[in-house]
Amino acid sequence: MPEKRKSRIRERNEEAILKAAERIFAQQGFGAATTAEIAKEADIPKANLHYYFSTKEDLYLCVLENILKTWLTAAEDFTADHAPKEALENYIRTKVELSRTRPESSKIFAKEIISGAPFLSTHLNNDINPWIEEKVRIFDHWIEQGKMAPVDVRHLFFLIWSMTQTYADFSTQIGIVLQKDELEEQDFQTAADMIVAMVLSLCKLH
User: Fold this and answer.
1) Of 22, 38, 72, 73, which sits with the fewest C-beta atoms within 10 Å of its C-beta?
2) pLDDT digits over 151-188, tens only?
3) By residue range, what is the domain housing residue 158?
């Protein structure tokens, strides 16, 4: 079999496994989930799953790494060349959209953090902390230039994360309060509009 074709097959299989793993880990948590269930969800033999990921721990860590990569990529507009208003609005709307389209990611991350981050602690120190320090420098530069009001940048991110991810993590609660079996796209649009308005007002960006 040509190497390129084998590579495409590998990519498809790994993608199917990771998507299935995201769903199963979100539903059951790391401890209760099994590779047999994930293989069944991915519609592949269990032996094939272990060909790509030797242990459940390896697969879970890969899922977590993909989640972090997706979330960090969502903040590409946070550079010194961007205006703070547009950067914040784009980031918030992207995060809300990820809560709508990939709620399992947020739920897995929340469960991992609530459990004390046994798998993610190293990544939080090595990836998230340098990332947030870089964003702090950018925001401090905007603040020094008078482009936005002084804010505690770390706590600003905590607020944005909590507001945007709650629509994934607590979608059941929100659905009950809204008397809906499932949140609709308009609900996420309304949430994004309100979060953007609140954050821009806090930062005095109008």
Assistant:
1) 73
2) 999 999 999 999 999 999 999 999 999 999 999 999 99
3) 63-202
